[in-house]
Amino acid sequence: MGNPIVLLLDEPSEGLAPIVVARIGELLKTLRKTGATTLIAEQNMHFCLGVADDAAVIDKGAIVYRDTIAGLKANEEVRRRYLAM
Q1: E strand or H helix at 18, and its extent?
Q2: Residues forming beta bridges with residue 8, ordered by sequence position
Q3: Angle at 13 between CA 52 and CA 67, to 5 degrees
């Protein structure tokens, strides 16, 4: 699809080599510069921290935390409790 406004990705890093995951991250950053919005459902937190601006942590189907990536990085309790970081 050409010129998307929103792109939804479900675990784009799943099962891929680290070099491929890095390339996907680069492409997502480039896409963001065009003004497109990307919604990523992902368990690879390190990948998300590198490409996202905002984060929502979901536990048992409910959003239990929502903030910027900087806020998530600063919140040790949420990272420890939900993200094993």
Answers
A1: helix 18-33
A2: 39
A3: 25
Is residue 60 within 8 A of residue 83, CB to CB? The reply is no
What is the pairing mode between strands 54-59 and 37-41?
unpaired
pTM, two decimals, is 0.79
Q: Which residue has the tokens 């390339």?
A: 23
Share of the chain above pLDDT 70, in %: 96
Integer Cα distance of 22 and 81 in angstroms: 27
**By the 8 A CB rule, do 36 and 7 touch?**
yes
Q: What is the pLDDT of residues 29-76, one digit of tens each?
A: 998 888 889 999 998 888 988 899 999 999 999 999 999 999 999 999
The tokens for 58 are 């979901």
**Around 9, how many Cα atoms within 13 Å sit in the side-chain half-sphere?**
22
Dihedral (Cα; 55, 35, 12, 22), 10-degree rounding: -100
